[in-house]
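Below is how a single chain appears once it has passed through the pipeline. First comes the sequence as given, then the structure the pipeline wrote out for it. We keep one example in the README because the format questions we get most often are answered faster by looking than by reading.
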Amino acid sequence: MILHRIYDPKLAQASYLVGCELTREAIVVDPNRDAEQYLAAAAAERVRITHVTETHIHADFVSGSRELAGRTGAALLLSAEGGEDWQYAFARSDAARLLRDRDQFQVGQVRFDVMHTPGHTPEHLAFMVTDTATTDRPMGVFTGDFVFVGDVGRPDLLERAARVVGSMEASARQLHASLQRFKKLPDHLQLWPGHGAGSACGKSLGAVPQTTLGYERLVNWGLIAGSEEEFVAGVLAGQPEPPRYFAEMKRMNREGPRVLGHLPKPPALAGDTLRHVLESGAIVLDTRSVHAFGAGHVPGTINIPLNRSFTTWAGWLIPYDRDFYLIAEEGRALEEAVRDLALIGLDRVHGWFGVEAVDEWKRSGGTLETVTEISSGDVATRLRDGGATIVDVRNVHEWEAGHLEGAHHIPLGELPSRIAEIPRDRPIVLHCQGGTRSAIAASLLQAEGVEDVLNLAGGFAAWKEAGLPVEDAPKAKP
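Resulting structure:
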């Protein structure tokens, strides 16, 4: 058996190429939209992709199953579990084979046993793998978003992202039942999960790429939790806020993502057209670092730096129903940005400008805006004098662990819809934990015409290091 793991660090997402050495057939489990990487992996392993499958309807990236099946002519295998509301709407038109609990299928001499593992989602499947050329005993399980290294899948996304009201607790109980069944499998089974550390599909995912069921039975809190009630309380507590784009991914993946044939290639635009684009009210996303953007940027542009968090914040902040434009470094950086956006369905990149467009704007008489940083000491002085409004853009759990007294709490992902809540009668000081998210927030406010915006240098970490006062969240009453 051939096993090739393909990992996207920005999505913290793993997909797998599994091949048979004898027949040179292969299957891809949980592909994302970038089909080229799977074709390249298959060529490197000298196999042909004959099957494509996925563990569930994904919420954090656009599924590449249709894309890859269309490119290769592979058979498409999809879950038939979960009830009518959780069926793949495109399964019939794509002549997909529908899988149910205890079904089996073969890829060459590799056998896959299907397990229905609801809880994270109603239709979720896991695939137990046996290399029949070697033994009749299973080797491992592709667990998708059911069991991770050190954690289990979150059961609250249907309610918190897809707005299926009242589904959290029932899903948590389904997940508990699925885990009880799963725990009865042999300890030697290797587990190959669909996500790693940094994914919002759990709260404490490990960074190790794989594990075993026996090890997880010892250390994974979800498998060693006591009663069902203790598990339900534990799995629903402390989950990170799901990014806004998760709901769009669920809809898109259920209905059937558009088959692209290749990743988008937006046209290059002349720098002198940037003014017209901005005057039309279009979104222009500057992908330079927060330091480069802060030192000088074209008014009206917003900044999401092309770093490890680019995909997440683009999904939070860029609307899906509008065309938008990029400012990016030509070459690899541009290709990376377009690919990252396409992986979460942000395909409406109408064109791009090189970073030299910023200098061209200035040479043609335009004024560049800057994002001014302010030290913790200066913020403290302003607060004593009543000379600043503090806006904390960190997440809820960071806020609850401690914050500046009197600060307004608006998580970065919610800022575009809540800008009107911020008083404008004094300078606005934004902060996050280290300074990057608040720099993005500053760009959003400036693009909306808010002029007196400052960014706390070093963020909340610098504030604490300076020994300045921190207010704890109110303690819950017993």
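The chain has a mean pLDDT of 95.

See the next section for the split statistics.
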